[in-house]
Amino acid sequence: MNPILSCEQLTKTFGSKTALAGVDLNIERGRIVGLLGPNGSGKTTLMKLANGLITPTSGRLLIDGEAPGTHSKAVVSYLPEVTYLADWMRTSDVLEFFRDFYKDFDMERALSMLKNLGIGLREPLRSMSKGTREKVQLILVMARRASLYLLDEPIGGVDPAARDYILSTIIGNYEPQSAVVISTHLISDVEKVLDDVVFINNGKIVLSSTVDEIREVKGMSVDALFREVFRC
Ligand SMILES: Nc1ncnc2c1ncn2[C@@H]1O[C@H](COP(=O)(O)OP(=O)(O)OP(=O)(O)O)[C@@H](O)[C@H]1O
């Protein structure tokens, strides 16, 4: 089967700034992949390219064998770094919005995750704490039956006690043949759910490995390896 996401010499520049410089990368189905790198390394740029929000300067990126477009919009579920939902909306409004907008939205799955996290349906987003808003958005994104989930900093505002629960319930709910790409700085929290990691720096992939390989061959956690590779 073809990889769900593949990049060949993917390059993106903004004026004189190079955000991605010749990235070659394959994301296989059934894997949870951590896209890890320091600030400004190109993680969000890669996610935006995968969503077709911006276009490559050169090289190419394919989703399920096709350039981003109508097909990729149907199979990719994207959690952006910044919120795009209007703050007057209640949880029930955003649920309806997703149900109307995405054919693959599983309302039952969303309702069950919201219930498990104690999030009410009548509360408007604007009166929720930042962490609760993040939980709602992550639930919406993970309740789609997508082939590729792209999560840009999904749990930055969530308290440490809730992170584990969210990661295990929400990430555990994804379709087994789908892939999840998570960009995060909270490596020690997230690494237990990762199969693979991709380290990126200055727009280039500097390491691509399974998590088992890092633990077995290097005898380190992903967090420890990240700190070693990117020591300031
Ligand atoms: N619209 C833009 N215009 C100009 N430069 C941009 C734009 N978007 C991103 N960049 C630059 O591209 C580089 C990569 O940015 P990107 O947001 O992809 O990094 P990141 O790895 O997601 O960072 P962070 O961890 O801080 O979120 C940075 O140098 C950034 O300043």
Strand content: 25-35%
Bound molecules: adenosine-5'-triphosphate
| Secondary-structure element order, N to C | EEEHEHEHHHEHEHEEHH
Overall radius of gyration: 17 Å
Task: Return the CATH architecture.
Answer: 3-Layer(aba) Sandwich
Helix content: 25-40%
How would you write the strand order of the largest sheet?
5-6-7-3-8-9
Helix and strand content put the structural class at alpha/beta
Characteristics of this structure?
six-stranded mixed β-sheet; 9 helices; nucleotide-binding; 232 residues; 9 strands; binds adenosine-5'-triphosphate; single chain; alpha/beta
Protein described:
The structure is a single chain. The protein has a single domain (5-229), classed as 3-Layer(aba) Sandwich (Rossmann fold). The chain is 34% helix and 25% strand. The protein is globular, with a radius of gyration of 17 Å. The chain is built from 9 helices and 9 strands. It is an alpha/beta fold and 232 residues long. The longest helix is centred in the middle third of the chain and has 13 residues, at 130-142. It has a 6-stranded mixed sheet, with helices on both faces. It starts with a strand and ends with a helix. The protein binds adenosine-5'-triphosphate. The site of adenosine-5'-triphosphate has 11 residues, from strand 2 and helix 1.
Give the helix/strand layout:
Layout: E1 5-14, E2 17-27, E3 32-36, H1 43-50, E4 58-63, H2 70-75, E5 76-79, H3 91-101, H4 107-116, H5 130-142, E6 148-152, H6 160-172, E7 179-183, H7 187-190, E8 196-201, E9 204-210, H8 211-217, H9 222-229
The structure holds adenosine-5'-triphosphate.
Protein name: ABC-2 type transport system ATP-binding protein
Keywords: ATP-binding, Nucleotide-binding, Transport
Pfam families: ABC_tran
